[in-house]
Design a protein that fits this description.
CATH class of the largest domain: Mainly Beta
Order of helices and strands: EEEEEEEEEEEEEHEHEEHEEEEEEEEEEE
Largest sheet: 7 strands, mixed
CATH topology of the largest domain: Immunoglobulin-like
CATH superfamily of the largest domain: Immunoglobulins
Low-confidence stretches: 1-31
Oligomer: single chain
Number of domains: 2
CATH architecture of the largest domain: Sandwich
Distance between the termini: 40 Å
Strand content: 35-45%
Shape: elongated
Number of strands: 27
Radius of gyration: 24 Å
């Protein structure tokens, strides 16, 4: 006799958790049974790289780990031990069985993925509310957004209410001498007219490295964990962690008010309460990145950050943008995620 399996729950640390409940008494029944225990759980990383070791762990209803005495099944096939690897990408399901009090406990099948990472292109928009030509970069970014999710955008403001003290250091490093200015992957000049195809042609291409972001908000304190892994050895890399905010309303000078080809035609000059998105609010890392140790191929590396959020921020509109950059400050890949959430490798 077999009890119906439960729906899986997801943990915030990129882990999927399933649970089962022990609410029936089968004592005196000689037939082998599988019972459901709602307080037990199976833990597995939600996504991994090809050939990367994927560890499984399982806990009983007393929160005791029983991995060593459990048997794991991937797509219904028993595996040896508690570690699985796949040379092929795809979506799989795992469940565990273990013995407890004379009965077999079986967890609900939990999905997990093996992926080839996709490259998210970083766009940095050097802008200001005083800059009447800057909306043209905003318009191009919005066109890119309509076509792909494989971009991470950071708007770096100059000499306005949203400007940060280190903005001039970024301009000096990346040779920004006029406005508007766009940079692709930090170091490539996105030249006028800021053709969306300059980004779309490279966004979403396979990349060796992947980035996961998990953050938890407690009051005004935000704890962040960034996890990286690569199919190849990763050396001389740095990690940049930015906090950005959407939905900031400030008047925007608009030199396109009389330009019928512009999406900002007829919106006034200035545009009152223009919505500024992706606005850089803080850097949790060094603005040019924190040096990472050499990371072996397929090894998972995690780095923790924390920040106390200003009361001026709207936490519902905050996101983290993480870049992996090389020794020349070129972004090799990036990831973004809303705060107080988790996003695994993609």
């Amino acid at each position: 006799m077999k009890i119906t399996k439960l729906i899986p729950l997801l943990l915030l640390t990129f882990l999927a958790v399933v649970a089962c409940s022990k609410d029936e008494d089968f004592s005196g029944n000689d037939e082998a049974v599988t019972i459901v225990d709602e307080n037990a759980g199976l833990v597995v990383r939600s996504s991994s790289l090809r050939n990367q070791e994927i560890p499984f762990r399982v806990f009983n209803s007393s929160e005791e780990e029983v991995t060593d005495v459990a048997t794991f099944y991937v797509d219904e096939a028993e595996i040896e031990g508690s570690i699985f690897t796949s040379a092929d990408e795809g979506t799989f399901e795992v469940y565990a069985q273990y013995e407890e009090d004379g009965a077999t406990i079986e967890t609900e099948p939990t999905p997990f993925s093996v992926i080839i990472p996709k490259r998210k292109i970083t766009i940095e928009d050097y802008t200001g509310t005083w800059c009447g030509y800057c909306p043209r970069v905003t318009a191009s970014i919005e066109e890119v957004h309509e076509e792909t999710e494989h971009i991470s955008v950071v708007a770096i403001h100059n000499d306005d209410e949203m400007a940060l003290p280190f903005e001039q250091d970024l301009r000096a490093e990346f040779d920004v001498t006029g406005f508007p200015a766009g940079r692709i992957n930090r170091t490539v000049n996105w030249i006028n007219p800021h053709d969306p195809q300059d980004v779309l042609s490279i966004a979403g291409q396979p990349a060796p490295m992947a980035i996961g972001i998990e953050s938890q908000l407690s009051g005004n304190d935000l704890a962040v964990k960034v996890t990286v892994a690569s199919e190849n050895e990763l050396s001389n890399a740095k990690m940049v962690v930015y906090l950005v905010e959407d939905g900031l309303l400030y008047n925007q000078v608009n030199y396109y008010d009389n330009d019928e080809s512009s999406p900002y035609f007829g919106q006034g000059n200035p545009i009152v309460d223009f919505e500024h998105n992706d606005v850089l609010r803080a850097s949790l890392s060094n603005i040019f990145g924190d040096a990472l140790p050499a990371i072996a191929a397929l090894e998972e590396y995690a780095k923790n950050y924390s920040i106390s959020l200003s009361s001026e921020y709207n936490t519902a509109n905050l996101r983290l943008v993480v870049m992996l950059v090389d020794e020349n400050n070129t972004a090799m890949n990036s990831q973004y995620a809303a705060i107080d959430s988790a996003k695994g490798f993609e």
